[in-house]
């Protein structure tokens, strides 16, 4: 019998605004969890939002995996990615092995919910960088975690000791 070498498909959901120290903690936690859950290559699935999603994409690459990106809306770059973060976003987007669009023209809650549903359709596991607090809209991390659990998708919540969310900047 041959070993299954197909990639394990892992999605990410999580907070965007993290302190710099928390970003390092989350990176370490994501790498450790990715190593723990799979002895096969990882195929990540992400929307490439700032914070957890981009940290995840870099961790997947560092561990020799690949990832695909789900773009929630046609204007996602302009409306959801802060100008200071666009170069990193574009670099990571360019490294994706596949880019999928939800078909929504405008970024917003409906587009993000559609992206989260599509992400969950494409994964075998979900990692959530989440402080356990309820969100304020239908596409928040807590809602994505609940949706994954209702679908029976194994979900691991990561919130390392000492982690903190950063203050949301004006207009963020």
TrEMBL record:
It comes from Micromonospora deserti. This is DUF1273 domain-containing protein. SUPFAM superfamilies: MCP/YpsA-like.
């Amino acid at each position: 019998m041959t070993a299954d070498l197909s990639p394990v498909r892992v999605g990410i959901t999580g907070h965007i605004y993290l302190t710099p120290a928390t970003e390092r903690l989350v990176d370490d936690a994501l790498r450790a969890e990715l190593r723990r859950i799979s002895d096969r290559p990882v195929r990540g699935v992400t929307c490439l939002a700032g914070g957890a999603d981009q940290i995840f994409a870099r961790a997947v690459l560092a561990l020799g995996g690949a990832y695909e990106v789900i773009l929630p809306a046609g204007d996602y770059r302009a409306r959801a990615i802060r100008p200071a973060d666009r170069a990193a976003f574009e670099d990571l987007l360019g490294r994706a092995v596949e880019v999928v669009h939800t078909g929504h023209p405008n970024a917003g809650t409906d587009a993000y919910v559609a992206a989260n549903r599509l992400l969950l359709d494409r994964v075998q596991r979900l990692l959530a960088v989440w402080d356990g607090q309820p969100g304020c809209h239908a596409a928040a991390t807590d809602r994505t975690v609940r949706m994954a659990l209702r679908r029976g998708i194994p979900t691991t919540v990561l919130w390392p000791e000492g982690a903190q969310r950063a203050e949301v900047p004006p207009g963020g």
